[in-house]
Amino acid sequence: MVQLLKADSPMTGETLAAKLKISLATIRADLRLLTTIGVLDARPKVGYAYQDASILPAGNEALFKTAIAKILLPPTEIKLTTSMEEAVTKLFIADVGSLYVLDDDGALVGLISRKDLLRASFTDRDTTLPASIVMTRMPNVVTVTANTTIMDASKLLLKHNVDSLPVVQNPSDTHVIGKITKNRIFKYLIETLAP
């Protein structure tokens, strides 16, 4: 997004989404975050424009080098055998965007997003089937460690177009200790940067 806006600003959210070949809803949180941290400027009825991120108040550069350990959220987990119906219920009761699927040893084996469950509900009416049939399987799930910086986590969220990343103890580990989401980073930045 930033590269497109560096080359051609201003641009509406709809135009930007069309150029990226994704929906506006998918990039809305990203646009909000980039506007909040000063990379983009939002102009009503005009669109988004790139602006140099160095306009952040002095001293806030360290904010982006902060480890995500400071702002981790608890993971929302299910077992491999959890049914579609149970998974949907847990997803909405916990009000989360994704569920982490664990095996009997508590190791991460996959991730199920709201989109995965929604798509499955339209194609398969049997809600007793295990939700794991629609999950993204390891090693295709991107994980981070608690020492990952806010900037690096943000870049991974944007690059992979996901709403959350499972946090593990070390890169070779598959036991989830937390999660980091776009909204958690956004909330932290707002709380920290607000006067």
Automatic annotation (TrEMBL):
Which SMART domains does the UniProt entry name for this protein?
CBS (SM00116)
Which keywords, in A-to-Z order, does the entry hold?
A: CBS domain
**Pfam families linked to this entry:** CBS (PF00571), HTH_11 (PF08279)
User: Where does the record place the CBS domain?
Assistant: 68-127, 135-195
Origin: domain of life = Bacteria
Protein name as it appears in the record: CBS domain-containing protein
Organism whose genome encodes this protein? Lacticaseibacillus chiayiensis
